Amino acid sequence: VAGSVPALAQWCEAALNSLATLELHASYVYQALAFNFDREDMALKHLACFFLRRSQDLQNRRGGRLCFHDIRKPDQDNWESGLQAMQCALHLEKHVHQSLLDLHQLATHKNDAQLCHFLESHYLDQQVEFIKELGDHVTMLHRMGAPEDNTAEYLFDKLTLGDSHKKN
Asked: Read out DSSP for 122-135?
């Protein structure tokens, strides 16, 4: 049919659904992180907002048809420090990034220029930017004396993340 969109190849559909499942798992982890830091005993509201925004970004970024798979719950639901949480998020984002690179490599191998372009323009650059941001946060927290110095996390929450909502 003229003007119709070609059907997704099975390999492509399976790979995209696998990526979507991983992104939804990441969203669950970010929700758990947000709730962890919004508790009374943690009271790091900007850290909570940072992770909640990331969860919402991941959910809103996914469009189109989705074949739902079981999404595993986060491996943990309690983080002792903002540094531990940022390290967890950094590890998770590196895993997501590797999955994106694997999908891009598969699309290249299958000569799917459209999927390659989609990944390059909508995912890969943003993923690298967020990994850099998380790495900067981990470095900053280390330099400030976290996790040994609780004041470091308070100042990081207030001064570094406190203004981040104004950027978004």
From this structure: IIIHHHHHHHHHHH
Q: What is the Cα–Cα distance from 48 to 7, expressed in whole angstroms? A: 41
- Residue 126 annotated as lining a ligand binding site: no
Phi and psi at residue 134, to the nearest 5°: -65, -40
Is there a binding annotation on residue 31? Answer: no
Q: What is the pTM for the complete model shown?
A: 0.77
Amino acid, res. 76: Q
Which of the four CATH numbers 3.40.50.720, 1.20.1260.10, 1.10.10.650, 2.60.120.260 does domain 10-61+78-167 have? 1.20.1260.10
Q: Express each pLDDT in 15-29 by its tens digit.
A: 888 888 888 888 888
